[in-house]
Amino acid sequence: MKRKKIVAGNWKMNMTHDESINLIKELKEISSNYVDIKIAPSFTNLNKAVSLLGSSGIEVIAQNVHFEERGAFTGEISIEMLTSVGVNSVIIGHSERRKYFNENEFILSKKTKMAIDNSVNIIFCVGEELSEREKGDHFELIKNQIISGLFGLDIEQIKNVVVAYEPVWAIGTGKTAENYQIQEMHEYIRKLFNDKYGSDISQQIRILYGGSVKPKNAEEIFSLKDVDGGLIGGASLNFSDFNAIVQAANG
Ligand code: PEP
Questions:
Q1: Interval between CA 96 and ligand 1 midpoint (Å)
Q2: Whose CA is nearest to atom 7 of ligand 1?
Q3: Computed over its alpha carbons, how large is the radius of gyration of the chain?
Q4: In the chain, what are the domains?
Q5: Buried (b) or exposed (e) across 118-131, using 16+ Cβ within 10 A?
Q6: Per-residue model confidence as pLDDT tens digits over 147-187
Q7: Residue 246 contacts residue 37 (beta carbons within 8 Å)
């Protein structure tokens, strides 16, 4: 089955308001009928990004969301705040959230439920640390992350989920996983979905790779059988790199 590729830029804690506007104006020129393009600016730039991108076809997504609906949670952003500015997708479970903000499986499953209950799509990130891979625990670990984060969803709900496999040791390090490591993990993840939800879902669900994707390696990575595009950090912060990566997914 042919799955439409996704190239999603995760801007992390980068870009002032003016810098965001400049990059978004450039991004508007990217044309691609064959790739779903998404960008995840910081919260302070979401509203403006949505209004600037309008009907360009580039979707604005959030980097995070709180798991409660509203209330006394100083500094947090609710799902309703996102949807009220036209944001209908969110990244959940990024390894930086897991590592620096102690987001565990319990918290992440509450976040996925909050998003799905509000018809917000999810990019759910999973990935192992280098020490876990070296011990040979990586498949088991990814399986547990997926089961606890996503497998509480029913067959209709899971259709609103994209998975991003991001080995932690490859994020922001310039060290990309080997092609065989990427393909075997994507195939493994697809099989987990097959076993839980059946073959239609497993063939439909899009699984992105993330971890130092750059213009020079994007085409090769995106050509792997079970890779449906990428979640891009560093290289999403400038137009020419991000555009080149989108064009690599076009191929
Ligand atoms: C990411 O933040 O999800 C990521 C993959 O970052 P980078 O591309 O910089 O490794």
A1: 10
A2: 233
A3: 17
A4: 5-249 (3.20.20.70)
A5: bebbbbbbbbbbee
A6: 999 999 999 999 999 999 999 999 888 788 899 999 999 99
A7: yes
